[in-house]
Amino acid sequence: MLCCMPGVAFVPALLVCWSSAAFIISYVIAVLGGHVEPLVPYISDTGTKPPESGVFGFMINISALLASITMYIRYLLIEKQNESSHFVRSSCNMFTLCIGLMGCTGMGIVATFQELAVPSVHDIGALVAFGSGVVYITLQSIISYKSCPRWNTFFVCHIRMALSVISCIAFIPMIVFASKVSMRKIDWTPGEKDYTYHFMSAICEWTVAFGFIFFFLTFIRDFQRFSLRISTEIHED
Question: What residue stretches are annotated with the CWH43-like N-terminal domain (predicted)?
Fold first, then answer.
């Protein structure tokens, strides 16, 4: 008995929509509740206090799961394409998947351990999520170029690489500026000590996060040409 699932483009599409909603809904609830200032808070700031903390934790955990599924399907897709084209080593494809799954684990840590409750664990999770994410999309961009022109257009590859470069550039000052912030708080207001560092770091953080989202958006076309087949065999005694 053979069950066919034609096209899996809904997976990255759902990931993009769900993750965007997670950031936006948490932000809106946090701002309306007076917990953060509207002007570019950290993403984690919008998921620290209830009720937005519950929404943030739940939705980001689901995003991490969807991202894991998307990355695994991408791995399978490249393996299938590689059977006829041999454009990348299987070990490199597996390594890229492992890096991506590390980032998803970091997302789960960020969602589970709030910024003010367990700051050290939260920060480690955020560093793993953003660092692994940047490496993952960069490796995927390189793999995309290697698969040209048979499996990808150069236009799509250029977009992916541009998003990777922007995310990499934003990731470095995000860490540098965050390390200069001497206070751990979420209700920042202009004019406070270290506010400039906080503001610049937060801008970079949002840039990297939406860089990931737009990158996964480019997977939709590829996933339209890919179907998962689940085969079940019944053996008679």
Answer: 8-225
